[in-house]
Specification:
- The protein is of the alpha+beta class and 140 residues long.
- Helices cover 40% and strands 20% of the residues.
- Strands 2-3-1-4 form a 4-stranded antiparallel beta sheet, sandwiched between helices.
- It is globular.
- Bound molecules: inosine-5'-diphosphate.
- The site of inosine-5'-diphosphate has 8 residues, from loops.
- Pfam families: NDK.
- It comes from Agromyces tardus.
- One of its GO terms (molecular function) is nucleoside diphosphate kinase activity.
- InterPro entries: NDK-like_dom, NDK-like_dom_sf, Nucleoside_diP_kinase, Nucleoside_diP_kinase_AS.
């Protein structure tokens, strides 16, 4: 057993907000035992999204990803808990909603629309370094 109290950035992407899944996603986070520390609903602008997704610049899905993320409001959450960075990514499921395991957020609710970008409902930071960088971008 490892003790590592962490904070992570969770985003409910525009598809999740539009489909009224914010409450269900937060319910799963809280049911798992993680704590909500801060939350905001906002319309992300391109400048914020370019910083958030800097590692993907130049990839074929980058432009459709940024367009999708600015297409409507998102919910940003600061979530705390032991090993929450890895733990939330397990709750979310793998990137592709078609193959994400049932029981995960993406596996249960993600739909493969056949679009240029996977609209997979949520984002979760993937490392301690990413979490620190992303939390300061979204929460200052
Ligand atoms: P993650 O969100 O599961 O960590 P990343 O590789 O960080 O996945 O990619 C960021 C986001 O870009 C994904 O959540 C998804 O919306 C989109 N994406 C990633 N790879 C692809 C792809 O191959 N095709 C379409 N969209 C993708």
């Amino acid at each position: 057993m490892t003790t590592s109290i962490e904070e992570t950035l969770v985003l409910v992407k525009p598809d999740g907000v539009a489909r009224n899944l914010t409450g269900e996603i937060l319910r799963r986070i809280e049911a798992k035992g993680y704590s909500l520390v801060d939350i905001r609903l906002l319309q992300a602008d391109r400048e914020l999204l370019a910083k958030h997704y800097a590692e993907h610049e130049g990839k074929p899905f980058y432009e459709p990803l940024v367009e999708f993320m600015e297409s409507g409001p998102v919910v940003a959450m600061r979530v705390a808990g032991n090993r929450v960075i890895e733990g939330f990514r397990v709750l979310a499921g793998t990137t592709d909603p078609t193959t994400a395991a049932p029981g995960t957020i993406r596996g249960d609710f993600g739909r493969d629309w056949g679009l240029r970008v996977q609209q997979n409902l949520v984002h979760g930071s993937d490392s301690v370094e990413s979490a620190e960088r992303e939390l300061s971008l979204w929460f200052g």
